[in-house]
Amino acid sequence: MGAGGAGSAIAAALLAAGCAQLTLCDPDTAKLAALVARLEEHWPGRARGEAAPALDDADIVVNATPLGMRPDDPQPFPLRALAPRCVVADVIMKPRETALLKAAAALGHPILHGAHMLDHQLDLYRTFFRLDEPPAP
User: What is the pTM of this model?
Assistant: First the structure.
C-alpha cells in the first residue's frame, strides 16, 4: 500500500529480489499508474496497480503510507483478509508498534518494524557518502 517514495523503493527492491508478482495500491490513481509504468520498464509483466489489494493470496503486505502515525488512523488494509502466515511490514518508525503491527501480531502474522528498513539503509548511506574512507590528503 502506497506508491510514494518509500513504496516505490520497496516495490523496486522486491522485484529486484525476484518477486514474481507485485500488486501496488494507492488511492492516487495517477501516482499509482506512473509507478507501475516505471516498474514495467525494468520488470515487464510483474507489477500491477489495483484500487484495492487482493490480500487472500499475499505472502507479504507492506504499509508504505502514513497511516499509523496517529493513534486514530484507520488500518491501511483489512487484516482478517490475509492468508495465515502472511508477513505484515510497516515503514512507520514511530511508533515502533503501530496499531497495524499490533493487530497483525495478535492474529499470528510475522511482523517487520519500520526501523528494520532504516537499519539496512545506514550502510548504503555510509557507502554513498564515502563515510568509511579516510579523508583525502
Answer: 0.83
CA distance 7 to 128: 21
* Residue 111 bridge partners (DSSP): 88
| Local confidence pLDDT in tens for the 137 residues of the chain | 999 999 999 999 999 999 999 999 999 999 999 999 999 999 999 999 998 888 888 999 999 998 888 888 899 888 998 998 999 999 998 888 899 999 999 999 999 998 877 776 777 767 777 777 766 66
Q: Is the distance from CB of 100 to CB of 63 less than 8 angstroms?
A: yes
Beta-carbon contacts of 6 under 8 Å, excluding residues fewer than 6 positions away, are: 64, 91, 117
Three-class HEC string of 69-80: CCCCCCCCCCHH
CB-CB contact of 26 with 50 (8 Å)? no
Shortest CA distance to 69 belongs to which of 29, 100, 111?
100
For helices 5-16 and 29-42, angle between their N-to-C axes, nearest 10 degrees = 30
Write down the residue that cell numbers 506512473 correspond to: 34
